[in-house]
Known about the structure:
The complex is a heterodimer.
Chain A: E1 4-7, E2 10-13, E3 18-25, E4 31-37, E5 44-50, E6 53-57, E7 64-70, E8 73-79, E9 87-94, E10 106-107, E11 111-115
Parallel strand pairs in A: 2-11
Antiparallel strand pairs in A: 1-3, 3-8, 4-5, 4-9, 5-6, 7-8, 9-10, 9-11
Chain B: E1 3-5, E2 9-13, E3 18-25, E4 32-37, E5 44-49, E6 53-57, E7 60-65, E8 70-75, E9 84-91, E10 97-99, E11 103-108
Amino acid sequence: ETGVTQTPRHLVMGMTNKKSLKCEQHLGHNAMYWYKQSAKKPLELMFVYNFKEQTENNSVPSRFSPECPNSSHLFLHLHTLQPEDSALYLCASSQDRGSGPQETQYFGPGTRLLVL
Amino acid sequence: GQNIDQPTEMTATEGAIVQINCTYQTSGFNGLFWYQQHAGEAPTFLSYNVLDGLEEKGRFSSFLSRSKGYSYLLLKELQMKDSASYLCAVLDSNYQLIWGAGTKLIIKP
């Protein structure tokens, strides 16, 4: 059983829809991450939160909006997405940031997103 | 720029040994991770190396040479369940995790 859960597992949405992805970690970690994974490409880091504060936003379009209400929950709000945003969206958590082995990230199962 | 290189795909036989290589050019180095990802599933942590040498964990071993910017993951006594993608990632001097595109390993009976 994974310590990081994500819902929904699959999502199909139109370009005018608004939806949200949810991530929850049960590991007592302080840092949480959103990644985009496209076929045959490296994982793309989107956002990082450390102790509920956003520390990184890697030039992600504003149609993706993260929210971290507490250190256990992370959301990704989606609106007016494009077909090229179709991908697997992975959430991860780590004990800390900036500390070598404590950067070990634990991933959720991901949300497979299809934008029509 | 920062770069991680690993083969796109490899094929090996059940019961054999396979070595998956990873070379990197990054701004500094604070450790190298290997993850396993089965199709449609989450990546799972396999190993972390920060010092040169070989770290062994059961059937899996990971090697690091910082001077050569090189690592490999060695899988012994291959099983069908080892069919997966193997991701190499390097923690740079800013503690940013730089990911490779992954190596898809196919195990044949």
